[in-house]
């Protein structure tokens, strides 16, 4: 029996209140997520931690789809694009988990969130309707410049041994995230449900990360402190399942370039959490950066 033809996707030209609310909530958690990974990394090897997270998230997504009656394995022509998106997604998280072993979470985050640049550069080449106008490009540069300003103090400080590796891996993760978004938007994956799109990414990553963990001879165990397991649980249930499912849904229904721009909020949330949780100083540059990001987002999303 052939799979049912998926319903046509109604794409909105602008972000509405629901989209903005979801984006702000997701960005806030993603800013906290790097700290969670860092915390658990004191006890759990990086790729083994990623494996536990992706296994749990894949299982949660499968149960969600069973409950909602969402088909995951029908023939719809999305397999090639889905596997590509999954491999790019896996590469992103391998870079993040290993990179955090070498550089602070807040520093890696600024490199990770170069992703909107890759989206803005590449998506309009395939989808003309996503092309940014001059004012929107200005907003993109203002937002990124604000993020760079917030982190500029760290760039002038002496770096720890091997920190350049973490910085480079953070930049690579941003590229892979951007390419994942491009793959989702420009292949048949754009026509499938948000659940199936996310299933491709989580499922492939759940296969790749344990193999790399074994290749690096990481020790596997399940005997970890409660705080480490609490971090993995939040990364799994809120991060890899709920927030990424919301992200996939937004990529399917809203302009990708406008959605991607909101992710500039995440490194600033990471800085705020660093101030609150790690005692880092709240500087004038951070306040100016918050204002700059807000201005950039307004410019990109203004009608």
From TrEMBL:
Keywords: Membrane, Transmembrane, Transmembrane helix
Highest taxon above the source species: Bacteria
Principal location class: membrane
UniProt subcellular location: Membrane
Domain EamA: 19-151, 165-301
Classification via InterPro entries: AA-Vitamin_Transporters, EamA_dom, EmrE-like
One Gene Ontology CC term in the entry: membrane
Protein topology in the membrane: Multi-pass membrane protein
Regions that span the bilayer: 20-41, 47-65, 77-100, 106-126, 138-156, 168-186, 198-216, 228-247, 259-278, 284-301
Family per similarity comment: Belongs to the EamA transporter family.
Protein name (Swiss-Prot/TrEMBL): 2A78: carboxylate/amino acid/amine transporter
Source organism: Tepidimonas taiwanensis
Lineage: Bacteria, Pseudomonadati, Pseudomonadota, Betaproteobacteria, Burkholderiales
